[in-house]
Request: fold
Amino acid sequence: MTGTRARLCLIEDDEIMGESLCERFELEGFSYDWHRSCREAEIALARHRYAVVVSDIRLPDRGGDELFLALKAQGRVLPPWLFITGHGAIDRAVELLKSGAADYLTKPFDLDAMIDRLSSLLDNAQSPSDEYRLGVSAAMRHIESLLPRLARQATTILISGESGVGKEVVARELHHLSAEGNERPFIAVNCGAISESLLEAELFGHEKGAFTGAIRERPGVFEQAHGGTLFLDEIGDMPLPMQVKLLRAIQERKVTRVGGERALSVDLRLICATHRDLKERVEEGRFREDLFYRINVINLRLPPLRERGDDILWLARRFLAAYCREHPGETKRLTPTVEQALLMHTWPGNIRELKNAIERACILSAGDALLLETLFETPPPAELLADDTAAGLADYLKACERDYIAKALEAHDGQIARTAAHLGISRKNLWERMKRLDLSV
Reply:
């Protein structure tokens, strides 16, 4: 069973509770380490790779929540974290969910419910490292699930989506998933950023003396990408005359340098990308229909960030962790108010805009907490600038949880089993949350 292949990290100072949990873990066949303090657990987490952490919030030397948030702030990639808490700390537990914790259970809890939740987390925790590379939303997880097969079989792929959604990131992931992907070249060129007079030489190369300034021969990107991947970004902006030559090169897998006479064979994977509607441009006569069908063998559409809200905080935390890694000694964190602002924003610039916003806020915020006024270039909504009271924060977090579960129920036609599986919790846990949040189907 799953427990024989994965190891749990239990952080619990109560001897009776700890012994009870360990006894049940053994009955279930789970491997585990029991740590009675945060200090002891922190050392173990640095040395071992755990599949799941089960942690009490209140511990003798430090709060389990403080340990979790401190490790997140350091940019550590953590396994799923399941908190155990008393009824008096439910609001804190919900806040931890917003910060990336997997779930929480309130004392006294049903051991069967805990085992159900642990089994689900262990089944999904195939690796304690980054489980997802592109996003945690259903849309991006689906795309990520397709990439290994495409990397093995597809030689021509079109990636479409708005500017800033991460088309080149997906292209690079496809390349790295290929056999010997890390050893073969990945060449990227923006077709819209090169003038028409220079584009042919950029793509196909040129011989010495082919034109003024060509003082030596130079291979084009097709030749440079031989054996690897060629990524043609913004292909929808390519001039029509060049589209004819590109079509021929794709069909024949041969290129002729500017000023040359010999056709050179190339073997590569071609990935094209565009933020434009190519079908519409074909109808307008601005994109060749034959080229469109030639590159549109596999079409991956990346949804804009506003359509995959689950990815916003996940991405923000990754950018925050990356900034802290690049600037040793810097510790930055997202406050609930900043997180609310991130979720409310429509992100017309998509992931690129989000990354810039986090970097700007990290630079301009003097303390550890990112300041709301540094996040956007325009002033934030007035209601977000109001001081948060403890009650107001708890109400906000409860409303976020209620809205999230309500949307999940709606997406799965109110079916409890399917919704619970989507949320990664047990049916009993979902019923309990629905009751607490006054939700019905």
